[in-house]
Records
---
Amino acid sequence: MHELALMGDILNLVEKDAKQRGFDSVTGITLLVGILSNAMPDALGMAFDMYKAQRMTMLTEDAALEMLIEEARASCPHCQTTYTPTHRIAICPDCSLPGGQLTTGQSFQVKSYEGS
Amino acid sequence: MNITLNEEVLKDNNTAAAYNRDHFRNSGTLVINVMSSPGAGKTTLLEATVRELSNRYRIGVIEGDLATEMDADRIRAVGAQAVQINTHGGCHLDARMVAKTLPEFQMDELDLLFIENVGNLVCPSGYDLGQHHKIAVLSIPEGNDKIPKYPTMFMRTELVLLNKIDLLPYLDFSVEQALKDLEAIQPKSALMPISARTNEGMEQWYAWIDNAYRAMKEA
C-alpha cells in the first residue's frame, strides 16, 4: 500500500511541468496503470482525493483522475503464441511450456494532464 | 490546456537508481537487494553470511525497517558496517533513501553491500535501487501459496532462498510444488533450499555470491 507515496511522485511530476509553463492550476490527470504494476487504481483514487482535500497542491477542487488500465499480455518464445497471463504468468496456455515473456501490463505512467 | 507528459511515475526513483548504480560500478561493490515478507529470516541470513564471508569480503549492510535500529545492531554485532534506514510507515525502500545512506559508507572499501528491504512481498519489488541482483527469501512456515499469490515479487527476482528447511519435518510444505510454482512465474529464477539457522545448504548461497562477485569484476 504505497499509493499515497506514488501519488506524491505523480503530483511532483505534473506540478514541475505545470510551473515551467506558468500554469496556476491542474484540473485533471490521466495515468496509464498496468495491472501488474503493483499500484491499485482504487487506492490511487483515494490518494488523489486526499491530496485534493489538503489543498496544498495545484489540484483544483473538482480535479479529476482518469486511469487507463493496461491489461497484461505475454508471448511464448517456444510457439510464438501471445496470451493473457493469469496466475501462472510464464506458462503458455497452448504448449504448456514455461518461458512466456510479459509484453504489457507493467506500465505505470503519467500520460497527460489538464492545466491552466 | 491538455499537456502530454508520457513520463514514468517512478522517474525520480529511476534517476536515483542510476546514480546509485554509477556509484557501485565506480567502487566495484556487488550490491544485492534482499526482499521477503516480515519474519522470513533476512537478518538471520545476513548475520550468517557476514560471519562466513568476512574473511574474504569487506561487507556492508543497509537495513530498511519502519522503526528501530534493531537489525543494524544485529549486523554490527557480527562485525559488519550497517546503516539503518527508518521509513516511518513507508512499506519499501526507494533509490533516494539508499542514495542518502551511501556517504555513510566508505564505498571504495566495500566488496559487498546487502540492502535488506522492508519486510513486504508487494511494494519493494517495484523499486529499482540500482542493485546488481534482486533476490527473495521465502520461509517454510509461510506456506506454499506465497509464490502464486505474490507474482510480482517472484517474477522480478532471480533467486529465491527457501529458508528454514530445518522445519520441513514439522510443516506441510512441498519443495517440489514450490519449484513448479516458481517455474510458472519466472522460469529464470532459481530456488535454493537453505537454513540460515543450522547452515544447511548455505554453501550454495555462498557459491552464488562468489560467482556473482566474479561476474561483476569481469564485466
---
Amino acid sequence: MISETVETTTIRLDGDWSMSGVAEKFPVLEKCLRHLLDSEASGERQKSPSVGIPEIDLAGVTDFDACGCQLLALFVRSLRQNGSSPLLLNMSEAFISRVHSLGFGRELNLPL
Amino acid sequence: MTNSGQNNNSIDLNQFNQVFFEECAEHLAGMEQILVSLADAGPDEEQLNAIFRAAHSIKGGAGIFGFQDMTVVTHVLESLLDRMRNHEIPFSTAMVDLFLEAGDVISMQLAGHRDGAEVHQDAIDLIRCKLQQVIDSGAVAASIAAVDSERASSDEAVTCLDSNDSVAACYRYELEFTPDPDIFKRGIRLESLFAELEELGKLTVTAELQSPADFSTLDPEICSSCWHLSLETTASEADIRDVFEFVADVDQLKLLQVANHPAAVANVPESNRLDLPCETDGDAVETAVGRRIYDKNELAPGAYGRRTVEADSSIRVGVTKVDQLINQVGELVITQLMLAQTAAGLDPVLHEGLHRSLLQLERNTRDLQQSVMSIRLVPISIVFSRFPRMVRELASKLGKQVELKMVGDSTELDKGLIEKISDPLTHLVRNCMDHALEKPAVRVAAGKEPGGTITLRASQTGGRIVIDVIDDGAGLNREKILDKAAERGIPACESMSDEEVWQLIFAPGFSTAEAVTDISGRGVGMDVVLQNVQSLSGKVSIVSEPGQGTRVTISLPLTLAILDGLSVAVGDEKFIIPLSSIIESLQPSTGSLKSVNGKKVVHVRGDYIPVIPLYELFNLPALVTEPEKGILILIDVDGEKAALLVDALLDEHQVVIKSIETNYRKVDGTAGATILGDGRVALILDVNSLLQMQKKKLSL
C-alpha cells in the first residue's frame, strides 16, 4: 500500500471507495497517516524537504462515492494539517468529474 | 406505458402498488372536491396548499412505485400550483376546468396501470401543454384557447414548447445542505441527488468538511460534511424541494432564492412577477424549505385535503381479510349461542360459575362482533363526493343553475353497499338535473329562484340507512305518467293514489322525457335504480308535489352481514323475522279477527290488517292454525302492514346471515339463513317477498 523512495512516499489506493468499502479502507489510511507522521516526528523529512512527499495513486480505485470522497478529503486535509501537501496521481476523468460533482474539487485541489 | 413497479423481481410490489392506487384515487378525489367547491374568488391559501399536496403526493408516489409516466402531468401541475402559491400566477376561473382536466388525465393514467385501461397519450400531451403554457405566460384563458385552437386546427400530435424556448423567470438558489450523519448508511447516493439537481439548471457544488479532532477517531461511514450549492434555474422551489424529498428534513436544507436574471424577470408580466429583492440588494429572501415544509400546517383544524390524526394512524387492510374476520366472528357467535343453549339445560345453582362466564362470553362476543362489523363501515361521502363535479358539468351542459347540498355525508354504511348504491344515486341525480329542475327562465316564470337545488341527505334511522335525493324542481306530472303508462300498456287508472302513480316510473323502459338526451330520457334508469336497491334489501319511495319538487328516498340495511331478528316457531321449524320490520306482536282476541272477502284480517287500533299464516305459505304442518291461539306479528313493508301468524315467539337474536343460494337455491320468501344455538338452520324471512307471495296466492 505504501512504497517509499528517496523523494516520495506513494500511497496506492485501490478497490471499492464507496460506502460499502470505506470501513475496510479506513484502517489503511490511518496506518499510512501514522507512518507519515512518525516519519515526520523522526525528523527524516525535515532533513530534506523533498524526501517523502506523499503521493496518492488512485489508479486502482474502482468505485468511488460521496462517502469515499469525504474520507479521501479528510485524509488529505489531515496530511496538510501535518505539513504535507499530497499529490493525487492517476486520476481518471470520471474520477475527477465525480469529485467535482460532489463538491470536493477545491478540497482536493483538483484541476477544473 | 411504463410499469417498472410491477416488473420488479424479488419483491411482490403489487400489494404496495395497490396502496398507491388507492391513495392516488383519494388524492384525486380530494383535489376534485376542492376544485369543484371553488367560487369565483378562487382558492384560499389552505385550499391551494391542499391541491398542491395532492398533486405532489401523486407525483412522489408515482415516482417511487415506478409509474414514471404519471409524474409528467403531475410535475407540470405541481409547478403551476407552486407558482400560484407564490402569487407569481394569479388564479382565474378557467383554471378550475384546466385542473379538473388534468385530474381526469391522471385518473386515466391511474386506470391504465391499475385496470389496464386504455391511455390516450394525446390527452396527456395536450394537458401538459396547456399547463406549461399557463406557467410560461401566466395567462390561463389565452393559453388554453391557444392550445385548444392549435389542437382543433390540426390532428397532429400536440407539441409543446421546450422550457428553454419560453421566457420564464430565472432565479439563483443558494442551498445549504447539511445531511443526516447517517445518510451514507441509508444508501442515499449524493452524486445521484446532485445530478438530479443539475438537470434543473446550472449547478455549482462545494463541500465543506468538518474535520475530526483526530483522524483516528473518525467514523468513515458517518457524513460529517455539509454542502453549499448554487443553482441557476427556471425551476420552482417545489422542483428543488422535490429533489430533496426523502433525503433532507426541514432543518437540513436551507434555501436562499435570489433573482438572478433581471432581463428574464422583466419579461414576466408585472402581475405575475415574484416580488423578490435582487442579489445586489444584498437581502436575499430566506425561505425555510425542505421536505414537508408545505405541510407545516398539516395539523391545523378544518383545512381541506388534510388527513386527520386518526387517518394518519390508520392502516390499510384488504376487504377479503376483513370479510374473513367477519365470517370467523360470525362462527364464534354461533358457537357462543350453542354453548349458551347447552348450558341452559344445566342447573344454575350447581353451575353458577359456568353461567356467569357464559354471560361474560356473550357480552364479549357481541362487542367483538360490533367492533368487527364497524370495520366494514365507510362514510357515504365516498359516493357523494362524485356528485359536485357531475352536477357542475351537467348544469353547464344543460344551461341550468344548480346548487348541490350534501347533508350527513359522514353517515356510515357497509362498504359492499357503498359500492352498489353509487350507480342508483347517479341515475337519480342525473334525472334531477335533466328532468326535474327547470331552466332559469322557467323557474323565474314560476315564481322560483332561477337556480335550483338538489339535496343529497343521508342519515341512519334505526338499523337502516336512509338516503334522500331531493330537488325543488317541477315535481312529477301525474297526468303525463298515467298517459305514458296507458301508452305502454302498463296497468294504471285515474283512481290510483299519487304514491301508486309514482311507482309506475319504476317500470322498465318508462320515461316521460320528451327528448332522449345523453344524460337521461331513455327510460333506462329508474327500473335499474329499483332493482339495484332491492338487491341490497333496500326500498325506494317517492314523494312529489307539483311545482315544489320531488324526494326519492332509498332505505338500506346498515349491513348485509348481520341482522337483529326475532326467532319464531311454526310447527317444528324456526324462522327469523328482521326486527326492523316488526311493529309489534300480539295474541288477538276472537273479536278482533274478521273476515273480509273471505280473507282473514285482524282489527288493530282502527286498521284492518291482513293475516298471513306462515304455515300456509311454507306448506308446513302447523300446531296452531287459528290466529287467536297463536301469535300475530305485525310487520310494516313500505307502509303496507300485515300480520304474520306464528305458533310462538322464541327469542331475539343478532344473527349472522348466510346465503342459501351459494350452496342450495333461492327459497321464496327468505333472505338467507342462519345457524341457531342448537346447531339448526333457521330461514330468515324477507317480509317484502312474503307479502308478494301472499298477494299472488290470494289472486290465484
